[in-house]
Amino acid sequence: QVQLEESGGGLVQAGDSLKLACAGSGRTFDMAWFRQAPGKEREFVGGISWGGRTTWYSDSVKGRFTISRDNANNMVFLQMNSLKPEDTAVYYCATGRDSRSLRGKIRPTEWTYWGQGTQVTVSS
């Protein structure tokens, strides 16, 4: 039974940086970060394969955000640089139902286990 918990969110100024963490309890495989702003649907941010050798990002964050993982500690991270007000959202981490590959997947319905989210607010 997989449980995920995000942390690291907060209130920052535009242009600042923030690092989110996702702690996994139980087995995790391919992982992803999503975000959801008020009044909008949940959207993909970035993904990473189990071994960390493959990553994929949305165009809106590419070059600013970096996803990484530490399998020894069952952790996944999202380093966010050059934050913009439009990055304001609740950020969620997710993983799949089993060991099948989810590399390149960007739809929320393709991911099974979710954390409760952590709020990121970027002021101008």
Helix fraction bin = under 10%
Structural class designation:
mainly beta
User: Got a strand count?
Assistant: 11
Q: What Rg do the Cα atoms give? A: 13 Å
Largest sheet: 7 strands, mixed
- Poorly predicted ranges: none
Report, as a whole number of angstroms, the end-to-end distance.
40 Å
Form type? globular
Mean pLDDT: 95
Taken in chain order, the helices and strands follow as EEEEEEEEEEE
Content of β-strand: over 45%
How many helices? The count is 0
Description:
There is one protein chain. With 124 residues, the chain is mainly β. Helix content is 0%, strand content 48%. It is built from no helices and eleven strands. It has strands at residues 3-7, 10-13, 18-25, 31-36, 43-48, 55-57, 65-70, 75-80, 89-95, 113-114, 118-123. Strands 2, 4, 5, 6, 9, 10 and 11 form a seven-stranded mixed β-sheet that branches. A four-stranded antiparallel β-sheet has the order 1-3-8-7, with no helix packed on it. Strand 5 and strand 6 (55-57) form a beta hairpin. It is globular and about 40 Å long. The termini are far apart.
Structure at a glance:
By secondary structure, this protein is mainly beta. The protein is built from no helices and 11 strands. The chain starts with a strand and ends with a strand.
